[in-house]
Amino acid sequence: MAEKPWNGRFSQKTEGIVESFTSSINVDKRLYAQDIAGSIAHCRMLAKTSIITEEESSRLVKGLLKIKKDIESGRFKYNDSLEDIHMHIESRLAADIGKAALKLHTARSRNDQVALDIRMYMREESLEIIDGLIDLRKILLSLAGNHTGTIMAGYTHLQKAQPVLFAHHLMAYYEMFSRDTDRMRDCQKRINVMPLGSAALAGTTYPIDRKYTAGLLDFPKVSANSIDSVSDRDFIIEFLASASICMVHFSRLSEELVIWSSYEFNYIELPDAFATGSSIMPQKKNPDIPELVRGKTGRVFGALFALLAIMKSLPLSYNRDMQEDKEPVFDAIDTLKACIGIYIKMLPNLKINKDVMLKGASSGYLNATDMADYLVTKGMAFRDAHACTGKAVRYAIGEKKELHELTLEEMRLFSSLFSSDIYDVLTPASMIERRKSSGGTATENVLRAIKKAKRDIGKECQKKASK
Predict the structure, then answer these.
(1) What is the domain partition of the chain in residue ranges?
(2) Helices marked H in 110-233 — which ranges?
(3) Which residue, 91, 167, 199, 415, shows the most beta carbons closer than 10 Å to its own?
(4) What is the architecture of the domain spanning 7-106?
């Protein structure tokens, strides 16, 4: 059983069952790189402020780098009795370089150490998520660019509503994932704050230089209050809220892919490499990827709810409950990154059944609003035009006809304002092209939106390259 860093206060050794129960090493060992980087920066700051010697600092840094190499090569051994990644590294350092290792923890606590590690980890992971979302948006832009002439039925209440360009529909998801990108960037402002130097909760008596440490670790800001520094998990909650919203968007897209790939819709066909079959029904081609993404959304929601529940009613400052923050956030990060990655691979390989989409947009009375708008242009008030067209729809349903299949004489049963030019108004292409209002589905609008989005993506990539 390993010696505990608090051993001086206790007269009994920790029970094995307690060690197992309190151990978090199986979860937090993924923070090893951040823990070592933070320790190296802390060590160099201690030397700069003459709290330890340069020679001691050099030995500590060399020892830490060796431990990192051993972890990455798989030679490092883990033990529940050492609880967490911080104690594992400190214990191994002491075994490697002797008593000098015991000076590394001067002027810090595991409380500010773990706060630093999780911030550094989330900073790196959220940047990877941002890069993934940019790549996903590029895929959506490419798909939209290829389908500026593809017409489909737009839906409200899962009922056919009005025809839209498929490109316009795809650009709606582009907008969603653009907001997700912005939210992740905004999270960075709260994540990218350096807590080290807060110690357990009250700060330290040593003459440390927190700004120097922050500079070494590329933190633009140092935390302002030592109590808040060790007890703050708002940045995790904010990240998980942003991740949950992003998964909502994935879930909505997934639902549409499931519906569209059904035999009844047949708007799209998923690539064989991203579908599965049935163990009993030879004809089946199941949309497992979108279904799984839809299902994994609940895991990310659960991570958010878990953190809210953990932090609810916790008194200041640090409490051991907060050890439970890592497993949900790690799972949420892994899940979101996996969903982004698989959609980047799958979406370019969708087969779009343009003829089926157009046929769907040509039936179901999608041109009813345009018929009412036509009557408005002839001088009828919109509410009257709406009622008139509703009667025409009811009549057409009874005759098993679409509105554009009614004869002019039949239309004039409802209003004498109808003329032969009504038929030009009721085609899907005409309905689309007349919707020129800003943000509407007219081709010129969609092309303009795609062009602007490409410029925006280009700027984002330039900023990324310059960092």
Answers:
(1) 7-106, 111-201+224-360, 368-426
(2) 110-146, 166-191, 210-216, 226-231
(3) 167
(4) Orthogonal Bundle (1.10)
Structure tokens at 96: 């490697």
Q: Is 278 a catalytic residue?
A: yes
Helix, strand or coil for residue 164? strand
Helix, strand, coil shares, percent, the chain, to 5: 65, 5, 30
Token couple for 182: 């912005």
Residues 6+ apart with CB under 8 A from 316: 201, 227, 228, 231
Residues of the chain with confidence (pLDDT) below 50: 1
111-201+224-360, CATH topology level: Fumarase C; Chain A, domain 2 (1.20.200)
CA distance 134 to 346: 16
Please give the Cα distance from 294 to 298 (Å, whole number). Answer: 8
**Using omega within 30 degrees of 0 as the cis cutoff, is the peptide bond preceding 317 cis?**
yes
pLDDT digits (tens, 9 = 90+) for 5-40: 655 555 567 676 776 777 888 999 999 999 999 999
Contact 183, 86 (CB under 8 A): no
277-306 pLDDT, tens per residue?
888 998 899 999 999 999 999 999 999 999
* The pair of three-digit structure tokens given for residue 125, joined into one six-digit string: 């992971």
Dist. CA 12–CA 248, nearest whole Å: 50
Q: Kindly provide the b/e burial profile for residues 243-261, where b requires at least 16 CB atoms within 10 angstroms of the residue's own CB.
A: bbebbebbbebbebbbbbb
CATH architecture for residues 368-426: Orthogonal Bundle (1.10)
Which letter does DSSP use for residue 274 in this model?
Answer: G
Determine the Cα–Cα distance for residues 51 and 186; give it in Å rounded to an integer.
37
Q: How far is CA 124 from the centre of its chain?
A: 14
Structure-token pair, residue 221:
């800001």
Give pTM, 2 decimals: 0.93
Of 450, 260, 459, 253, the C-alpha closest to 342 is 253
Q: How far apart are CA 76 and CA 67, in angstroms?
A: 8
Fold agreement (7-106, 368-426):
no
Pairing type for strands 193-194 and 221-222 reads: parallel
Instruction: Choose, from 11, 50, 73, 157, the residue flagged as catalytic.
Output: 157
Q: Catalytic residue among 262, 278, 363, 419, which?
A: 278
- The answer to whether residue 157 is catalytic is yes
Taking phi over 0 as left and psi of -120 to 50 as alpha, with beta for the rest, 400 belongs to: left
